[in-house]
């Protein structure tokens, strides 16, 4: 199994991380600031850093096409400010990723009947992880849940770095399917009250 790393920007990284976290093949996520050299742009054309998510993906479970389909859902219509750190950008790391990204941009333009979509395509130069308080931001808010998880899964930093923490962060934001949430909770030694709390957050989000 060869894991892949993708660095994608799509606005405030708290919500983007949560959205990606429930994709079955996503092993882990980390938010931070990405910068790179511009390859192509239908957007701002800026090389200034953007809030982004570094995603570790198992393509045998979820193909890259699924990851990118989630990324381009509801792309913003308005052109962001030239210095916007909240913008749609693909930071590619090799020729293969660049080809996939170019094909996606063409597909999106065709799907929008030639209407210009606002995407920056850049060669990744650096990814600087954000402070710990920004990682798994939604999961981090619920200390009582983390206390319960620590009993079975170890210290919090281990939970935040795990696939379980990645998925729970997304479910707490209301993402994913009910069946996926149920199957995840069935594997956890949490009491009924704690599971009901997670279900309630998913339904109310």
| Oligomer description | single chain
- Major sheet: order of its strands? 1-3-2-5-4
Secondary structure: number of strands: 5
Biggest beta sheet summary: 5 strands, mixed, barrel
| Helix content bin | 40-55%
As residue ranges, the low-confidence spans are none
Provide a count of the helices.
9
What overall form do the CA principal axes indicate? elongated
Quote the beta fraction.
Answer: 15-25%
List SSEs in N-to-C order.
EHEEHEHEHHHHHH
The N- and C-terminal alpha carbons lie at a distance of 34 Å
Radius of gyration from the CA trace?
18 Å
The structure class reads alpha+beta
Average the pLDDT over all residues and give the rounded result: 91
Could you characterize what this model shows?
There is one protein chain. With 205 residues, the protein is α+β, with helices and mostly antiparallel strands. 42% of the residues lie in helices and 22% in strands. It has helices at 13-21, 64-71, 95-111, 137-140, 143-153, 156-161, 163-171, 178-186, 192-204, and strands at 4-10, 26-41, 50-57, 88-92, 120-129. A 5-stranded mixed barrel has the order 1-3-2-5-4, surrounded by 4 helices. Helix 1 crosses helix 7 (163-171). The protein is elongated.
Key words describing this protein structure:
5-stranded mixed β-barrel; 9 helices; alpha+beta; 205 residues; elongated
List the helices and strands and how they pair.
Blueprint (H helix, E strand, L loop, with lengths): L3 E7 L2 H9 L4 E16 L8 E8 L6 H8 L16 E5 L2 H17 L8 E10 L7 H4 L2 H11 L2 H6 L1 H9 L6 H9 L5 H13 L1
Parallel strand pairs: 4-5
Antiparallel strand pairs: 1-3, 1-4, 2-3, 2-5
């Amino acid at each position: 199994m060869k894991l892949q790393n993708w660095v994608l920007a799509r606005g405030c990284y708290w919500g983007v991380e949560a959205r990606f976290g429930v994709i079955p093949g996503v092993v882990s996520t980390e938010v931070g600031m990405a910068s790179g050299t511009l390859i192509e742009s239908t957007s701002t054309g800026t090389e200034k850093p953007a809030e982004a998510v570094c995603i570790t993906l198992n393509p045998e479970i979820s193909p890259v096409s699924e990851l990118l389909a989630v990324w381009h859902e509801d792309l913003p219509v308005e052109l962001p400010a030239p210095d916007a750190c909240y913008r749609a950008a693909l930071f590619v790391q090799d020729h293969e990723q660049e080809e996939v990204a170019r094909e996606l941009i063409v597909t999106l333009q065709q799907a929008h009947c030639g209407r210009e979509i606002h995407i920056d395509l850049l060669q990744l130069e650096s990814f600087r992880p954000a402070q710990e308080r920004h990682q798994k931001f939604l999961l981090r808010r619920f200390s009582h849940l983390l206390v319960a998880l620590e009993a079975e899964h170890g210290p919090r930093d281990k939970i935040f770095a795990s696939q379980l923490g990645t998925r729970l962060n997304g479910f707490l934001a209301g993402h994913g399917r009910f069946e996926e949430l149920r199957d995840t909770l069935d594997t956890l030694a949490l009491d009924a009250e704690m599971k009901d709390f997670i279900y309630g957050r998913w339904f109310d989000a």
